[in-house]
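We modelled the chain as a single entity of 268 amino acids. Its sequence is:
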Amino acid sequence: MRLPAARLTTAAALVLATLMAGAPSAQGADDPPGPEPEAPFEVTLTSSPATTDFGHRTVDLTGTVTEDDGTPVADAPVKLHESVQYDTWNPWYDPIDPTERETRDLGTVRTDAEGRFSLADVRADRWEDEPSPYLFPSNEVQFQASYDPGDPNDHHFFFAHHTVAVEPVAGAITYKVNRTRVQAGDHLVVTGKVSWPAGHGPVAGPRVLLRTYWESAYNAQTTTDAQGNFLVQTRIRDYDNEFVLFSAPKDYYMAGASADLPVKNVTP
């Protein structure tokens, strides 16, 4: 059973398609061999600060649009996007993009007479109220800037991207199991608590998941109560062969915790 979450959100796919369109087009089958022509425009993008943390989640974005000889492009429309990134849990080792993304449009800004653009106080953070379908934050937020110099339908875009590192608050998870040796048909019950340093939280609401097989990350899960306590259980199958407990906080700046449970499947 594969993960129920899509490998790539629709919004992310659209952004990636837009950004990839800015790359030089491949040579046609009848074209003579040779290097690709240089792009006639260059887009740059950076942020201040370059790293964010629990108490400081905004950045100022700045960049430039120039011609290939360095001439500034004035009054150029620059589209900005933001992607909160997650690592892919990929036990199948198939050739997929190792990053999942939640992406939003930040709007369009225009360059000044020197080809510079900026956008201040941008949240380098999740913006959705509901928990992410993805479980493993990569602690990176990527921003993209793209410039279309002409016909929006000709797919000639020029772009830059910049990654902001996120410093999350480390959490902890404690647990008890009702048994350490299980057989098919048994119920494994795990109780415990998710916690973070004082002043960080909340402890209520993070998901806690119990994985018993490499393709069963979502099968047994619960959420913590107001004190961070949880109970999660599952019915053992004869092929269950790994027992891992882990938390998945809603807040991108709160790190989850995991533990390998001292449980062994002794099904004959």
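As a brief sanity check on the tokenised model: The helical segments are 10-20. Residues 1-31 have pLDDT under 50 and may be disordered.
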